[in-house]
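Example 3.
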Amino acid sequence: LAKTTQPISMDSYEGQEVNITCSHNNIATNDYITWYQQFPSQGPRFIIQGYKTKVTNEVASLFIPADRKSSTLSLPRVSLSDTAVYYCLVGPLPGGGNKLTFGTGTQLKVEL
Amino acid sequence: EPEVTQTPSHQVTQMGQEVILRCVPISNHLYFYWYRQILGQKVEFLVSFYNNEISEKSEIFDDQFSVERPDGSNFTLKIRSTKLEDSAMYFCATRTGSTDTQYFGPGTRLTVL
């Protein structure tokens, strides 16, 4: 599995756009990029998945440059409820073959 | 929206006791997983289960652990003789066969005294 590197933590204020970048220099041709979100004392929740260029859903956007060695999760106009840990996972479908391998993630803290 | 449910939400047990953690998957899901998260640490994969057998297990999933789906609905994780270091949040996750998105339950907090 490709190794991923994300910032340990980020701070933001309500209403701002937050961009969390994940580096995955060793991404393989058949690897997809998936982001999960975890609130305290809850299980992780799928946010978005992509292979290349840009993917957008009702929650977030995922930007993947042409070389695919990094990706950026973009959260538009965050609110206090977006305070959570965000995980970047890289692996072949389905979900790395089977298991999900979580790193330490990025702790996002949103303040008023 | 259908959800994965887990019971109990919190289990306190004495070291050496057996515990069974239960999960009710989303109804049309075929693949089942257990993960655990020790306080302040990463979410770690324990085991995956498909077609009534284990597909993959991690080094953590030793002989003290077992999984089964006894009645076609519940998916259980049994720890035969709990140790202090088994204290963690245990998450069940499930997915369909057509996508790789895993849906996690709310977790069971296991405290071993």
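Chain A touches chain B at residues 34, 38, 41-46, 49, 87, 93-95, 98-105 (CB under 8 Å). The two ends of chain A are 38 Å apart (CA to CA).
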